[in-house]
Amino acid sequence: MLNLSAVHHIALICSDYETSKRFYTNILGLSILGEYFRAERQSYKLDLALNGQYILELFSFPNPAERPSRPEALGLRHLAFAVPDLDAAIAHLNEKGIVTEPIRVDEHTGRRFTFFADPDDLPLEFYEV
């Protein structure tokens, strides 16, 4: 049997590297573990952590293909972050000019959550735990 121990990281490709870097660090509060420019690919790679744990790679590539639809396109549907206080998390985003969808309730757990978008309109979720 395969012995998976955890999700190591999630990788995102962005259209505007500096804008996405500011969003994930200044607005969501992820910390930078490493930042690299790969000249052979004309690509930046940014390694980001949440509470000291490596979770996200942010890439820039010249002329990336657009996502066909949101959020029900084939592939990754959304990236969800656990938050202890959904109302405070929403207020933080709204203060930064980021629109959130109406709060929903998970029919199986009774927990509240909301969706919003990153600078490339990738769907993100805050899930109250």
TrEMBL record:
Keyword Metal-binding: yes
Origin superkingdom: Bacteria
Entry keyword annotation includes Protein transport: no
Pfam families tied to this protein: Glyoxalase
Keyword line: Metal-binding
Gene3D superfamilies to which the protein is assigned, alphabetical: 2,3-Dihydroxybiphenyl 1,2-Dioxygenase, domain 1
Domain VOC positions: 6-129
PANTHER family: FOSFOMYCIN RESISTANCE PROTEIN FOSX (PTHR36113:SF6), LYASE, PUTATIVE-RELATED-RELATED (PTHR36113)
Protein name: VOC family protein
Organism ancestry: Bacteria, Pseudomonadati, Bacteroidota, Cytophagia, Cytophagales
